[in-house]
Amino acid sequence: MDLPCVQWQDHVAQKWTELDSELKERFTSLREIDDVFKCALTLTTQDDLDFLQSVSAGHSVQKDAEQAAKCRERGNSSFKTRDYTAATLHYSQGICFAPQSSEQLSLCYANRSAALYHLQHYEESLDDIEEALKNGYPSHLLHKLEDRRTQCLKHLSGGQKGKEDHHSPASNNPDTVKVPSVGPLTYGICPQATVDFSPEKGRHLVAVERIAAGEVILTDRPYSCVLIPGMGEVEGKRGNLDAERGVFGIEHSPGLRFLSAVTVATLYLRLSKVGPPPASWALSGPLGRNKQSPDEEGGNADWSMELWLLGSAVLRQFLQLRCNTQAILKVQDTGAENSPVQSSREIRIASAIFPTLSLLNHSCCPNTSLVFSSGITVDPSDFSESVAEDRGTARGVTVTVRAAKGIAAGQDILHCYGPHSSRMVTQERQHLLQEQYYFLCQCEACTRTQEEEEGAEGRWQPSGVGGSQHESGLLCGKCKGPLKRSSVDKGTGFVCSQSSCGHCISSSEVSHRLQEIRVNLEKAVDFMERERPDEALRLLNRAQSQPGLILAETHPLQGELADAMARACATIGDWNNAASHLERSALAITSQYGDDSIELGRQLFKLAQLHFNGGARGPALSVIPKVRRLLCLHCGPHCYELQELQAMEDCLRG
């Protein structure tokens, strides 16, 4: 979850810095949400309200028909590409912006009803059709809504008939196989896993039987989902924490808790000045009569009870969302429209709360893979018979969790919250996890000693994946022997491992050379984006021949360089050289991520494309089975890459 804007963060941080040490200690010692909120109210001043007003002035939230139209246009673009979930989110934003009883409001409702229809949410589609009609939907378009309403009712009546048939006397036939029902606790979880609890781990998932690699462990639909403005690229952290740890949201750092509490308290005071609360907020019963509020002796008495309870609830949710929001990721094609080879990156399109997924604890070397989907249905064939009936109804945004490796009975089922052992060293991972999720990670990867990780400069190579932990991935510029950390003045430089050479190079020099390579790589990618592949190739060749330093074939940066060279060669139709470079890139990816990684699967998928486009029938048919195995393992048998792969194979064999 995003924090408030930077100006407000800075304002509250300054307030925290200037706070009396006794007040700081008192605030830090509070354990109950109600007490935290009550304390924040006593510390919030008119200066805070005035600053909030000045910051808010630049972020208008007024109804705006023009903004509503822009949201609707973005929804239409997503609708045309059949991304109905994204379209629904855009139309929902348009509904928020559209003025009451306006044509834009009716059009947004109507368009959202169409997206919901394609997602098979027929009842919700009917609700939106009614709202469109109430808000003056154009008469010349009414036939569209009538047709859609008829189709929704037809589907709903057909589904009801199916349920009646299922529960008819005929279904009591003793020869009929009865499908076991699935209770609320295990909804979305395969029979081989169950929910366990311990004081140290909270609620978490554990395998009760062996789970084979590639098997679906759970699917989940979000309790709530919000589209990310601009759908920015994800780098590093991905929000998610097990539900038990985030129940009260009180284990945050004092500074962050203070920021959250003062933010909610300021909003509370702001709302308390706008007039009496809605009549629907009236409380009754013992809670409403007896609950004490901090405003009893002053302020707006009409607001005091209802708004104080709301403030505490909002603060609780605010703190929970910081740890429990999951980024919804999507692999997006980033190549040019006429590009013969797929170029993709992972982007964040939305944030959501997945109730069941939140049960998974973190590991920096997880045993699961996640795939997000916005498709119409989830294929029931991915699940065991005992949960297939419920699974067939999962539509819209879904997440599917598969076993990335075999999981033995009794083992925890673990998911990576972002910092992964194949990308970061232990100290960096633990810092990021402590900063966002407030726990010190002690997973298998983090319990390795720091000494095991030393020797890597500008790279990270996990043990058991590709070579010794003490290999740097760098070669001597004189004899091309492997460089290793110097045993003298440890950590200050590298020395050639060949005793006959003994060439030394300082850490600062290595960092400088690696930075030069990265700069040239970025420039080369920019050249390719501007359709200047020849210049990109010249720059990449120059980057590979940095004086005094050579990257080993397994160095991650060497993999990036080789991938960029493959892309440049493919752009000019040099398929053989493109495939050769991509094979080198795959070697580096194997070293960093492992033989069974999805990263290797995607790289080999590009290699299959290159062989296919170059007419290299034998090499293409040779690599396709490897790609199929990895994609099935992590993404399931119905991902779109496998469909393209099958089409290539059929063409080659035909």
Describe, in plain words, how this protein is organized in 3D:
Strands 3-9-8 form a 3-stranded antiparallel β-sheet. Strands 4-6-5 form a 3-stranded antiparallel β-sheet, with helices on one face. With about 650 residues, the chain is mainly alpha-helical. Helix 6 runs antiparallel to helix 7 (about 105-120) and helix 16 runs parallel beside helix 18. The chain is globular and about 85 Å long. The protein has 22 helices and 15 strands. Residues about 160-185, about 230-250, about 285-300, about 375-395 and about 455-470 have low confidence and may be disordered. It is about 50% helix and about 10% strand. Keywords: Cytoplasm, Methyltransferase, Nucleus, S-adenosyl-L-methionine, Transferase. It catalyses: L-lysyl-[protein] + S-adenosyl-L-methionine = N(6)-methyl-L-lysyl-[protein] + S-adenosyl-L-homocysteine + H(+). InterPro entries: SET-MYND_domain_protein, SET_dom, SET_dom_sf, SMYD4_SET, TPR-like_helical_dom_sf. One of its GO terms (biological process) is heart development. This is SET and MYND domain-containing protein 4 isoform X1.
